Amino acid sequence: MERNRSDEKTRRKPSGAAVPRADLTEALYRAFFEEWAERGFSALSLERVAARAGAGKAAIYRRFPSRLAFADAAISTLGLQIALPQAEHKTLAEDILALLLRARAVLRHPLARRILPDLHAEAARSAEMRAINDRLALARREQAEALLNRAVCRGQLPEQVDRDLALDLMVAPLYWRMVVRGVTPSRAELAMQSRAIEAGLKASTRDRARQ
After folding, report:
1. Integer Cα distance of 187 and 100 in angstroms
2. How far are the Cα atoms of 27, 122, 124, 164, 196 from residue 80, in angstroms, in the given order?
3. Which residue in 28, 46, 58, 113 is deepest, having the highest Cβ count within 10 Å?
4. How far is CA 125 from CA 59, 90, 117, in A?
């Protein structure tokens, strides 16, 4: 009896190098962050990461040549998620509130709360980790700068606004409260904070113009 060629093709395994699967890559990222949160980057084991993801260590090295490269890819992916475009609102305070709500969603995650302080500590010791940390910060600052540009176009902030100061003010108080103090603010508290940031930016711009 002649074998069905379509069945044979279905059963045949692909030859050549294995193709990295997106779902496995995502599982490896999750396992990497879980391992990092539990043990810190300095004690992070790629063998344990692979085991958490239900994969072999070879699955990691097909994607990343080193632990640092793995961290770079995982953090860059997180940075892109944080920097997703936000809807435009009518006022600067509303735009700031939307940014703070998104930052709160990231910072309230238990893994983020444990990893971020360790990331900053590693960045203080390692130039390579400093570069990775800077790219993550840049993703956040680019999103916040788009918010400032909209406010300038609407006439809610002058063109000469101190952008470095403004970008620091946007999320730094929230980071301090959530990551350093371990307190999660309510939406009402974030709305108050957004109005305070708006007022501070306008006041600092007036002071700068008088200098």
Report:
1. 9
2. 17, 21, 23, 21, 28
3. 28
4. 29, 43, 13
**In the chain, which residues have pLDDT < 50?**
1-3, 5-19
Instruction: Give one DSSP letter per residue of 49-97, joined into a string.
Output: HHHHTT--HHHHHTT-SSHHHHHHHHHHHHHHHHT------SSHHHHHH
Domains of the chain by start residue, with CATH:
19-74 (1.10.10.60), 84-210 (1.10.357.10)
User: Contact, 58 vs 132, CB < 8 A?
Assistant: no
Q: Both tokens of residue 145?
A: 């700068």
**CA-only gyration radius of the chain, Å:** 23
Q: Which residues contact 168 (CB under 8 A, 6 or more apart)?
A: none
- 175: number of Cβ within 10 Å: 15
Each residue's pLDDT tens digit, 39-97: 999 999 999 999 999 999 999 999 999 999 999 999 888 765 665 556 778 889 999 99
Q: What's the residue count for the chain? A: 211
From CA 63, how far away is CA 73, in angstroms rounded? Answer: 9
Instruction: Name the one residue in this structure whose structure tokens are 């002071």.
Output: 207
Structure tokens at 82: 């944080």
